[in-house]
Amino acid sequence: MTRGSPRADLPASPEPRGFDLDVPAIRERLALIKEARSLFGEEQARRLWILIGLPDLAEVAPADSVAKFLGRVRSVPGARIQAAAFYASYLTFCRETDARAVSPTRFGREMRTRFARDDSGRRRYYMDVVVDAAEMSLSR
Fold first, then answer.
1. Any idea what DSSP says for residue 101?
2. Are β-strands 125-131 and 117-118 bridged in parallel, bridged antiparallel, or unpaired?
3. How many domains is the chain partitioned into structurally?
4. Predicted local confidence at residue 100, as pLDDT
5. C-alpha dihedral, 106 to 115 to 113 to 140, nearest 10°
6. 78 phi and psi, to 5 degrees?
7. Same domain, yes or no, for 105 and 42?
8. In this structure, what CATH number is given to the domain that contains residue 118?
9. CA gap 112, 77 in Å, rounded
10. Same domain for 56 and 98?
């Protein structure tokens, strides 16, 4: 471990624990992490995350399903797609390919780094992008 990393001087767990907690227990632990972060900072919250047995986020993070989905997306100048429809297409892709989907917030953050977004009206649109319908139907 590198010095200063959250795992640097933590006691080793006797055995990796599976993440089989019930929802109330998860909520309770996440509330504890949130409180620790606000009181003691991010590094201490990460240490507590590890100590109370929450899973390593790198292990449970969705595989690059967003990157794979972007292989089904084309840049078309002048085109636009409503953000909700874009995410729905992504969810369809994840179901069809048995990929783990990210949250709408994370998806939106990823898309915002790749495509221009129009937030001027009541709905959000991503500009100059379309989902290749032919590619989506081939994956079924």
1. P
2. antiparallel
3. 2
4. 85
5. 40
6. 90, -15
7. no
8. 1.10.10.10
9. 17
10. no
Domain stop point among 60, 90, 106: 60
48 CA to centre of own chain: 21
- Does the pTM of the predicted model rise above 0.70? no
Domain match, 36 and 69 both: no
Residue-range definition of the domain harbouring residue 32: 1-60
The DSSP string of 23-65 is HHHHHHHHHHHHHHHHHH-HHHHHHHHHHTTPPPHHHHSPPSH
Q: What is the pLDDT along the chain (140 residues), one digit of tens a residue?
A: 444 555 555 555 444 455 555 788 888 888 999 999 899 988 888 889 888 887 766 555 555 889 899 999 999 999 999 999 999 999 999 999 888 888 898 899 889 888 999 999 899 999 999 998 754 444 44
In this structure, the answer to whether residues 55 and 69 fall within a common structural domain is no
Judged on CB neighbours under 10 Å (0-12, 13-18, 19+), 21 is middle
Tokens standing for 82?
Answer: 């409503």
| Domain final residue, candidates 11, 38, 60 | 60
CA distance 87 to 101: 10
Q: Which amino acid, residue 55?
A: P
